[in-house]
TrEMBL record:
Any matching Pfam family: DNA_photolyase
Photolyase/cryptochrome alpha/beta domain location: 1-76
Gene3D superfamilies on file: HUPs (3.40.50.620)
GO molecular function: damaged DNA binding; deoxyribodipyrimidine photo-lyase activity; FAD binding
Record's protein name: CRYD protein
Keyword check for Glycoprotein: no
Gene Ontology annotations of biological process type: photoreactive repair
Organism expressing this protein natively: Geococcyx californianus
Transmembrane feature ranges: none
Residues spanning the signal sequence: none
Alphabetic keyword roster: Chromophore
Length: 76
């Protein structure tokens, strides 16, 4: 979770991530983790800037062959 998406980010006067969206995201992540656990896997969830968190995870894991991500579309 990138804190920049939850703290002080506003677009057209509305919070980018309000309480209802945040609840939906948290419930979705919880459900995904439970589904993966039933299949013998897990989900790593971290809070921080992705450019820092991903780098730290790669260092912790030691052997990473690929990193996949998406970039949010930004309005002009």
């Amino acid at each position: 979770f990138d804190p920049r998406h939850y703290l002080g980010t506003h677009c057209y006067g509305f919070p980018k991530t309000g309480p209802h969206r945040l609840r939906f995201l948290l419930e979705s992540v919880k459900d995904l983790r439970q589904t993966l656990k039933k299949k013998g896997s897990t989900l790593v969830v971290r809070k921080g800037k992705p450019e820092d968190v991903v780098s730290d995870l790669i260092t912790q894991l030691g052997s990473v062959s690929a990193v996949v991500f998406h970039e949010e579309v930004r309005e002009i």
